[in-house]
Amino acid sequence: MLRDYQIVIFKDQHGVYRKLRLRGWLFFLTLLGIAVMVAANIVLMSYYADYTRKERELAASEKTIQEQKSQLLSLSEKIKGIETDLQRIREFDAKLRVMINLDQEPRNVSPQPEEGDQDFTKKYIPLYRQEMLARNLHKFLHDLGTQATLERLEQDRILALLNEKKDYFSSTPTIWPTQGWISSEFGERVSPFTGRKELHKGLDISTTLGATVYATAAGNVSFVGEGQGTGPSVTIEHPGGISTSYSHLREFTVARGQAVSRGDVIGFVGDSGRSTGPHLHYEVRVNGVAVNPMRYILN
């Protein structure tokens, strides 16, 4: 096999030819090189096919993981919404308990902070945080079921007491006296007129001039007229030692001694008395002592 080989190439019909001498070992190496190249191509094609298959599988896995991340993020946002709603129910429950004298002061209903970083609203969630989120979701759903049962029992108890105290509840100032926004809250503030600290004994609700003012609970009108620096004002006495006052009116639509129900129109917002703009000054007093109206407002 390693002997020399001759290759004869005929060029035309007249017998012209050319000889090529090929040594055996070179011919053998050429055939071996061709065989190696063919085998290498077969191996490379096999590796390429395997790589393409794994690449498709990886792409499918990444798509599945991304969908799972999106579902986890969506579920996390929904759970945050449920937590917000549950917190609102707790605050509502706390106000009701104070109003019907189950509690003397509002309970602290703020959620207890969890240990560790619980912010799962980011777009990227590492694997260990995905597992943590899954565990926290299961724990939250379990706690939510327990809390919902307890809240249902509390609500049943409150409803039973409310049925016993319907008249008292209808005479409690639980609604907003007008539509607008709070420009000055109850509590200590710097007076816009004297520049000194003072106790602001009510809420200032800024709104449009002429906005309707409503009685916040059933009662009897005990005062209508000009207040000291408050312009036209209305005061309503309610059962249980509660009274409400509405000041800086443009005009009032009730008379002294008149019985009113919750939601009755009693006047319109003005800019009278010492005022920095159209607004309603709203006060709630218990046995003559000013208290924060937000303690009673439910809606």
Folded structure, characterized:
This protein is α+β, with helices and mostly antiparallel strands and about 300 residues long. The chain folds into three domains: about 5-65; about 70-170; about 180-295, Glucose Permease (Domain IIA). It has three helices and 15 strands. It has helices at about 25-100, 125-165, 165-170, and strands at about 5-10, 15-20, 180-185, 185-190, 195-200, 205, 210-215, 220-225, 230-240, 240-245, 250, 260, 265-270, 280-285, 290. The strands form four sheets. Strands 3, 6, 8, 9, 10, 12, 14 and 15 form an eight-stranded antiparallel sheet that branches. Strands 7-13-11 form a three-stranded antiparallel sheet, with no helix packed on it. The model is unreliable at about 115-120 (pLDDT under 50).
Secondary-structure map:
Elements: E1 5-10, E2 17-22, H1 24-99, H2 127-164, H3 166-170, E3 181-184, E4 187-190, E5 197-200, E6 203-206, E7 212-214, E8 219-227, E9 231-238, E10 242-247, E11 249-252, E12 259-260, E13 265-269, E14 279-286, E15 289-291
Antiparallel strand pairs: 1-2, 3-6, 4-5, 6-14, 7-13, 8-9, 8-12, 9-10, 10-14, 11-13, 14-15
Helix pairs in contact: 1-2
